[in-house]
Amino acid sequence: MLRLLNIEFIKLWNNKASKVLILAYFILLSSIALISAIKFDFGVFKFHLADQGIFNFPYIWHFNTFVAGLMKFFLLIVIVSMVANEYSNKTIKQNLIDGLSKKEWILSKVYTVIVFAFISTIFVFIISLVLGLIFSSYTEANIIFSDLEYLIAFFIKLFGFFCLGLFSGMLIKRSAFAIGAIIVYFAFEFISYWVFKGFYRDTDIVDQVYQFLPFKALWNLIDEPGSRLGAVKELASVAGQDLSYDYAVHWYEIAIVLGWSALFIFFSYRLLLKRDL
To answer: Which residues touch 100 (CB under 8 Å, ≥6 apart)?
Structure first.
């Protein structure tokens, strides 16, 4: 495993674009801390976002993993490019000539995906812990370390998303077109979801079906946290809206994403086996 990872990280280190994207991604993750500095002061109206409870334990685990999940596209580009460049630069053929099996080649990509997802999760954990200890009104250990399942969901979300990028890069072999295909499919799934929601607005049949599709499954892992804030609930109550949602991380949502991840890896391997390199 370490040998395969070493090979992959040497390739990434020698690619300037990959280094820039990886650095930009982790800088963006760090920018979550800048949210604490957001203040509005209009005469008698003063608003400090950190005072709204977004950094309170255990809510911070939900909020930060959701926000960090929106930034995953930067690493997706790295994953897709990592695969596509193997074809354009002929390094995949050279790796196989040098004695790397096709199974080991795929595993090297999967291990890299796991490492990226794991490091991102640890990074978000550290940032959230520090921000929480600074701003949270609750610092009891049992409160601090509750709701950590959002970090597990975040890891699974990144892993599934990057496996999609791996498969797309393997299928199309050109990074720009592979990323474009992902965007087009996302748009198709998003638009068709809301079209069908319009037709079946009085039932939950659309959600029941779409929960098994890739992007909806990824989204369902971590629900939006904004409606959990007290201020939002008060405004909704005044407007006569009920914001009582189920924000929990469910095992079946994790199972669906892991199922798609396994399929993406399997089909990537099958493509590698069948292609004439």
So the answer is: 7, 108
Judge whether 265 and 166 are in contact, CB under 8 Å: yes
Residues 76-105 pLDDT 10s = 998 998 888 888 777 887 887 888 888 999
Structure letter (DSSP) for residue 57: T
Buried b (16+ CB within 10 A) or exposed e, 222-247: bbebeebbeeeeeeeeeeeeeeeeee
Domain residue spans in the chain?
Answer: 2-274
Integer angstrom CA distances of residue 108 from 2, 8, 28, 224: 9, 7, 26, 33
Residue 85: name the closest of 16, 164, 174 by CA: 174
pLDDT at 233: 54
Q: Give yes or no for a contact between 165 and 110, defined as CB atoms under 8 angstroms apart.
A: no
Check residue 240 and give left, alpha or beta (phi > 0: left; psi -120 to 50: alpha).
Answer: left
The token pair at 71 is 């930034």
Burial pattern 102-140, b for ≥16 Cβ within 10 A else e, equals eebbbbbbbbbbbebbeebbebbbebbbebbeebbeeee
What letter represents residue 272's amino acid?
L
Q: What is the pLDDT of residues 179-216, one digit of tens each?
A: 999 999 999 999 999 999 888 887 889 999 999 999 99
Q: Strand pairing of 45-48 and 39-42?
A: antiparallel
| The pair of three-digit structure tokens given for residue 203, joined into one six-digit string | 């039932």
Note whether 247 and 225 are within 8 A (CB). Answer: yes
Q: Tens digits of per-residue pLDDT, 219-262?
A: 999 988 877 665 555 555 555 565 567 788 999 999 999 999 99
Nearest alpha carbon to residue 63 among 154, 161, 133, 158: 154
